[in-house]
Design the sequence.
């Protein structure tokens, strides 16, 4: 429960720091980008709290570049 | 213009120096001795030559658009939509890199310095300081770099001098035991751990962008010299096998210092040195990330992005490695190829497209 409160508090502080000044200066596009990123952040952290499966970008990179990286390593590692 | 601050030529040098030392001083000795064994320092030397060569390419690129950052001229060169796509792709690299840096800080602090503190706490505290630095702007960060640089140099000299009595020269023999191949492999991995391309985001904000090449060259060379000395000392003092078995070999190296049973356990000094340099590396990365994204999406202020990016980075740094084994299998091997895309392929492509277009235009007008 504490971690949800922490997340709530953290996002509230972020909103308090950024939103009022953006709103006053009518920067609607900036506000959209900020809210989208913050929304993504909150959703992802919640997913982690709930132990849901989150795709890891490193695994994707491993899938794509792994074989080539292994080939480079095997060709250059030297004997023994 | 999103960033109104200007940094001086010297400040750019200092930032690139601290950026080069960055994480490398702690993790490179072990990686080098795993892949190039006792020739790790030669591999570093070759890697530094490659680094300096690529800086010439970067500066050729940035001297074509001295007032613009990497993100802005990629849009100029490739056209609006393709340029924006390339920029966002590039930002994803910086984003992932910053998450790796945070995780390395967390890993080091929890395994070596504060084992009972949860890794989340370390990472959140560190990112808060970085966000603060980024929000204050480039000028402030650069000035802080100037203040911290003497500490870094003095601490490094201190460690080096007190390790000199323990050197055994025969530990780097045999020289080139298995030929050049392992050296090339080590050099390739070393080169890709430097990520100098991100410094291109700072170049337009120095007061003399035309002279930026010198700043980058001097900063990178001095920083690389420090890393080469560290790698050499790790091999000479600890020996190849012991260096391989230690993930943070230079930290173990600092533990060896013992002057007449009087001066001992000074390894915290190395930790301080490293925390300073990785702070600047993370700050530069986060700055480049927020500024680049703001320029790509045409926001009015890059500071808006720092807080949500901070949240996302903390999250990503916690999931990015399942455990230390996946870190070791990813970091030099796969990461090097991944970084090559952004460090070599994209800048070289941009430069050649731009040169081609410029020559075509000349032909049309003549």
Sequence:
């Amino acid at each position: 429960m504490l971690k949800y409160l922490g997340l709530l508090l953290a996002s509230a502080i972020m909103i308090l720091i950024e939103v009022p000044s953006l709103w006053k200066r009518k920067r609607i596009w900036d506000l959209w980008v900020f809210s989208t990123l913050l929304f993504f952040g909150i959703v992802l952290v919640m997913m982690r709290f709930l132990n849901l499966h989150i795709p890891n970008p490193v695994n994707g990179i491993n899938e794509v570049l792994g074989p080539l990286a292994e080939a480079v390593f095997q060709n250059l590692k030297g004997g023994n | 213009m999103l960033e109104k601050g200007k940094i001086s030529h010297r400040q750019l040098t200092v930032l690139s120096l601290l950026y080069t030392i960055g994480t490398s001083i702690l993790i490179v000795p072990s990686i080098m001795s795993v892949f190039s064994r006792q020739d790790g320092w030669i591999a570093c030397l070759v890697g530094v030559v490659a680094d300096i060569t690529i800086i010439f390419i970067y500066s050729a690129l940035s001297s074509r658009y001295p007032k613009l950052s990497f993100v802005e001229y990629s849009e100029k060169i490739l056209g609006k939509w393709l340029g924006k796509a390339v920029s966002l792709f590039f930002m994803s690299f910086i984003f992932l890199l910053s998450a790796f840096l945070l995780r390395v800080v967390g890993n080091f602090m929890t395994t070596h310095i504060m084992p009972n503190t949860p890794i989340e706490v370390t990472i959140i505290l560190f990112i808060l300081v970085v966000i603060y630095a980024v929000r204050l702007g480039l000028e402030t960060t650069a000035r802080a770099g100037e203040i911290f640089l003497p500490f870094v140099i003095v601490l490094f000299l201190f460690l080096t001098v007190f390790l000199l009595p323990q050197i055994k020269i025969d530990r780097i023999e045999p020289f080139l035991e298995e030929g050049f191949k392992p050296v090339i492999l080590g050099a390739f991995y070393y080169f890709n751990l430097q990520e100098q391309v991100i410094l291109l985001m700072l170049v337009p904000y120095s007061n003399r962008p035309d002279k930026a090449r010198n700043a980058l060259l001097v900063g990178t060379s001095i920083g690389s010299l420090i890393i080469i000395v560290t790698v050499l000392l790790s091999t000479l003092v600890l020996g190849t096998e012991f260096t391989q078995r230690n993930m943070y070999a230079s930290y173990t190296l600092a533990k060896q210092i013992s002057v007449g049973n009087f001066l001992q356990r000074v390894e915290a000094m190395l930790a301080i040195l490293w925390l300073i340099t990785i702070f600047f590396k993370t700050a530069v990365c986060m700055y480049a990330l927020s500024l680049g994204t703001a320029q790509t999406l045409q926001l009015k202020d890059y500071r808006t992005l720092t807080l949500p990016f901070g949240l996302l980075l903390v999250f990503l740094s916690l999931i990015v490695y399942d455990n230390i084994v996946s870190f070791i299998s990813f970091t030099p091997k796969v990461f090097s190829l991944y970084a090559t895309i952004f460090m070599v392929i994209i800048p070289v492509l941009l430069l050649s497209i731009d040169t081609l277009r410029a020559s075509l235009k000349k032909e049309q007008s003549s």
About this structure: Chain B touches chain A at residues 35, 96, 178-179, 181-182, 184-185, 188, 297-301, 304-305, 307-309, 311-312, 315-316, 318-322, 326, 330, 333-334, 336-338 (CB under 8 Å).
